[in-house]
Design a protein that fits this description.
The protein is mainly β and 788 residues long. It contains 3 helices and 64 strands. Strands 49, 50, 53, 54, 56, 57, 58, 59 and 63 form a 9-stranded antiparallel β-sheet that branches. Strands 48, 51, 52, 55, 60, 61, 62 and 64 form an 8-stranded antiparallel β-sheet that branches. It is elongated, with a radius of gyration of 31 Å. 54% of the residues are buried. It is 3% helix and 40% strand. Helix 2 (562-569) runs antiparallel to helix 3 (776-787). InterPro entries: ConA-like_dom_sf (IPR013320), Delta_60_rpt (IPR013431), FN3_dom (IPR003961), FN3_sf (IPR036116), Ig-like_fold (IPR013783), LamG-like (IPR006558), Quinoprotein_ADH-like_sf (IPR011047). Pfam families: DUF5122, Laminin_G_3. Residues 1-34 form the signal peptide.
Length: 788
């Protein structure tokens, strides 16, 4: 019986010039909703263009705003103009603290002198925070936290220093911002770092690593009278470091964040509230921070807090794999959780501006938000934006704002990149250990504004040259992979033939760095056999543009392998079985001599994928005899791609293709396989200390034909269905075994989601194996050639 039900799902065929979009990323670009030119009703973000800002020669650990001034604290000795290098003639001395005009990025005259006393030690007692002044000699002088008084007149500095303006100031100092004078009445003796500060009209609250203040026991939390500088009896306790503090809007309680497991002997991890007067623990209903696992040495740390009205926003870092690393929002009075996201990658700072929550981190997996996942080599996105209001959803929406900063110089201890944020609802300042912003030199500080303040001027990212394939003597198919823009999701693409000045086609598409559509156009009506080149110009909504390199010159022709076969053959498969045989036991290799061997349960000359001509395929019968194998054993490849078309309406699942050590029956070693589970989803897996898999979000048992490509190589695994990338996995290796490529079935024991049958029942067409990992553009080009 011929596979008539596959033919009923025939796609529309091309008659005239046509363009289409194939999504070559994981999912659609939908979760990223806003940018500098957002759709109506969605939030606008700042531009991703760093504004001219003075730089530091070291790390900025903390930022705070007072009116039109932003104050930076950290471990640096000088500042210099934008675009200059260390040692520039305009460089100015600053001892760990500097102030700047928030709107221009230029320095003010405010320049406290913060320092530490050199000491000898066998090893650095505070890794990453105490400078080595010489072999075995260190000096702790960092400013780790900067906070302003509610009236903006007084600046409070906390850290690891021991003097200010030549006077003893153990870990805490205060300055009059207008005069630059050191506040004399706040001069406590604190025995270890101050990492957190919160200031009310009457009180200065501090948190950190200390256990003693002015000779009195204070276990990581303490408070001072602002007017007199006297130590107050307020003395809640934390069993581990306090990193951040914030006051409720009414000042009645203090929200405390850190790495603790208990506050006042109450078991609560990472975040808690205490009464601002008595220090008593207050109710906190949710537990967004997971408990510490001492045996595995895993824990999560709340590093930054922002209070807005009745909501507190928090950013956290996880120590250990898959520990909470993202952000959450909670009711500031009750602790009721509003939303929580889990982008993995150490959130070090957050800032709220115009309804957008900006964050500093080294995010490498935001799949929890339907965005980018883990890849190999790991990609870090150190600046992010998301909706502050989730509108009742369990998670916020990640917004389209992707400026980049690097992790810092190679000798940096943390290599985090950004560490601090501050804003005035117009200018967003970012400080850290980075030395570049958007790839350009910029150390320690940068800032971002909305387009109403400065225009959006960054162009989209560079593009690859288009791929061109013959579709006949007078027709060429042009495919190109979309690029992305740091602050605009929707881009316009104009296609030019032979270097012309007038585009032959224009199309718009959404994209981001993990979802790059493959766009296509069929150029019909050309002179028979004529050769042509193509370029693509991409433009953002503000006219910023970039042009791709030119494609190779390609002439219209008719391939003896057909339109799809010609596109596949151009990518170098071995073997490539078109499966057009009408009889016999051997599948011919269209590009060489690696023939396949049909089992007795294979039916030949069945209806194939409609756009893959000649329209013939095989049908497997769902038994151990319905398989197609390579004729002789060989070593399993380490880098490879598997490409084929399939269709089925049977609910039993089964293995479509895999590498096994037996030519027939069930293999005892089996790997590099694609199978359909009982839900009809495709699973691509390899064995590396257990099964490492990608599972398609969609189901494929409806009877239609589908194009599948699975790759593994130096960047990990990827699975494409119908031209779109549906999943990745960073695993780069699989079992080193000797065996056979098999189509139609094999052992699936011990693999996740084992289907009802190991043996696939359905149609298979045009199978190709490659010694390379195909690119998204190659996959999209092949699918285009076989789909219309």
């Amino acid at each position: 019986m011929r596979l008539g039900y596959f033919a009923r799902h025939r796609p529309k065929m091309l008659v005239l010039a046509v363009a289409a979009v194939l999504v070559a990323g994981i999912g659609a670009a939908g979760p990223v909703a806003a940018d500098t030119a957002p759709p109506a009703g969605t939030l606008e973000t700042a531009t991703a263009d760093p504004q001219p800002t003075w730089q530091t020669d070291g790390i900025v650990w903390a930022l705070a705003r007072s009116g039109s001034t932003v104050i930076a604290g950290g471990d640096f000795g000088s500042i210099r103009p934008p675009g200059t290098s260390v040692g520039d003639s305009h460089q100015q001395v600053r001892h760990g603290v500097a102030a700047f005009d928030i709107a221009t990025g230029n320095p003010t005259a405010f320049q406290p002198d913060i320092g530490g006393t050199p000491f000898a030690a066998a090893s650095n007692p505070s890794p990453g925070e105490c400078d080595a002044a010489g072999t075995g000699t260190y000096v702790c002088k960092e400013v780790l936290r900067v906070k302003t008084s509610p009236d903006g007149k007084t600046i409070y500095l906390g850290g690891d220093f021991d003097h200010a303006e030549g006077q003893v100031r153990q870990k805490l100092a205060a300055y009059d911002l207008a005069t630059g004078a050191l506040v004399t009445n706040l001069a406590p003796s604190i025995n270890s770092r101050v990492r957190a500060i919160a200031v009310s009209n009457t009180t200065v609250y501090i948190g950190g690593d200390f256990t003693s203040v002015n000779g009195q026991p204070r276990t990581r939390l303490a408070a001072f009278d602002r007017a007199t500088g006297a130590l107050l009896p307020w003395a809640p306790t934390a069993d581990h470091t306090v990193y951040t503090m914030a006051l409720s809007t009414d000042g009645s309680h203090v929200i405390v964040g850190g790495v603790f497991d208990h506050i006042n002997s109450t078991t609560i991890n990472g975040i808690a509230t205490v009464d601002a007067t008595s220090g008593a623990t207050m109710p906190w209903s949710s537990r967004p921070v997971p408990p510490r696992n001492t045996a595995a040495d895993t824990y999560s740390t709340v590093w930054d807090l922002v209070v807005d009205g009745n909501t507190v926003y928090a950013g956290a870092n996880g120590h250990g794999p898959n520990i909470f690393d993202g952000r959450f929002a909670a009711d500031v009075n009750t602790g009721n959780l509003i939303w929580k996201d889990n982008c993995y990658g150490a959130t070090s700072a957050i800032a709220l501006m115009k309804g957008v929550l900006y964050s500093a981190s080294h995010a490498h997996d935001c799949s929890d938000l339907g965005a980018f996942g883990e890849v190999t080599p790991r990609r870090y996105q150190r600046l992010l934006a998301e909706t502050a209001d989730s509108h009742g959803a369990a998670k916020p929406t990640l917004l389209h704002w992707f400026p980049t900063v690097n992790p810092g110089p190679p000798n940096s201890y943390y290599l985090q990149g950004p560490w601090a944020m501050a804003n005035d609802d117009t200018d967003l300042w970012v400080g850290g250990e980075f030395t570049t912003a958007n790839g350009q030199p910029q150390q320690g500080l940068t800032r971002y504004v909305y387009k109403a303040t400065a225009p959006d001027v960054n162009p989209p990212e560079p593009m690859l040259a288009p791929m061109v394939t013959p579709r006949g003597t007078t027709s060429l198919g042009v495919n190109w992979q979309a690029t992305w823009d740091r602050d605009n999701a929707n881009l316009t693409y104009s296609l030019y033939r032979d270097g012309g000045s007038t585009p032959i086609y224009t199309v718009s598409a959404n994209s981001n760095f993990w979802t790059l559509p493959v766009l296509r156009y069929v150029d019909n009506g050309l002179a028979a056999g004529s050769s042509h080149t193509y370029t693509v110009k991409v433009t953002d909504p503000f006219g910023n543009s970039r042009t791709s390199p030119a494609s190779a010159a390609v002439a219209g022709s008719v391939s003896p392998l057909g339109r799809y076969g010609g596109a596949v053959a151009a990518s170098g498969p071995s073997p490539y079985w078109q499966l057009n045989e009408k009889s016999g036991t051997t599948a011919a290799d269209a590009t060489g001599s690696k023939t396949g061997r049909f089992g007795s349960g294979i039916q030949l000359n069945q209806s194939g994928a409609p756009g893959v001509l000649p329209n013939a395929a095989i049908r497997t019968n769902g038994t151990s005899n319905g398989i197609l194998t390579t004729p002789s054993a060989a070593a399993a490849p380490t880098t490879y791609s598997i490409e084929f078309w399939f269709g089925t309406a049977y609910p039993t699942g089964g293995k479509l293709v895999g590498f096994g050590n037996a030519a027939t029956g069930n293999s005892t070693n089996y790997d590099r396989q694609i199978y359909i589970n009982n839900a009809g989803k495709l699973v691509f897996g390899v064995w590396n200390n257990g099964p490492q898999t990608i599972t398609s979000p969609g189901s494929y048992q409806s009877g239609g034909w589908h194009h599948v490509v699975a790759t593994q190589g130096a960047t990990g695994m990827a699975l494409y269905v119908d031209g779109a990338l549906v999943g990745t996995n960073p695993t780069t290796t699989a079992q080193a075994i000797t065996g056979y490529w098999r189509l139609g079935g094999d052992n699936l024991a011990y693999w996740p989601g084992v289907p009802a049958s190991n043996w696939f029942h359905g149609g298979i067409d045009d199978v190709a194996f490659y010694p390379t990992a195909l690119t998204a553009l190659q996959v999209g080009t092949h699918y285009s050639a076989g789909n219309n």
